[in-house]
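Hey team,

Filing this mostly as a record. A colleague (T.K.) asked me to run one chain through the structure pipeline before their review meeting, and I want the input and output archived in the tracker in case anyone asks later how it was produced. No errors, nothing strange. Just documentation.

Input sequence:
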Amino acid sequence: MSEHDVDLDPARFRQAMGRLVAGVSVLTTTCDGHDHAMTADTVTSVSLEPLLVLACVETESRFHDAVIECGVWGVSVLSADQRPLSEWFATRGRPLHGQLDRAPFRRGEHTGVALLDGALTHLEVRTTSTHPAGDHVIVVGEVLGLDIPDTVGPALVHYRGRYGSIA
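Output structure:
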């Protein structure tokens, strides 16, 4: 083992990856009549032909089981003023029932999933593949619908473990 290997621990890795600026989104799905949601900063475009995106979902989360079972999901890219929603949907142990009560939303026409009002953009997605990756699964999906509001304010971002915004 080299002297550099001692620096390869999860805390240092998290610190290093925290230096990537990431947009903040809320992922949603509907399964067995229940809405599920989670905050994500790992949503990435994959392909333009076909239109594909990916999200990384922790395998121990309720959202993981729901999105795997139901196969459709929404992405609401958050504006800077939606930080309280990001914090709420990142709260472990929040109640399943009524978790969307504090988040105004509409249902997507292609998937029926909740899409948060005031978001910078919305995507409706159908899962095409999943890939186990450590304590997460990479969920890849085809974009079935998207909405881009006419007015756009600053985006909510995550950097070095803190929230910020960028215009």
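Quick notes for T.K.: The chain is about 15% helix and 45% strand. The first strand starts at residue 22 and ends at 23.
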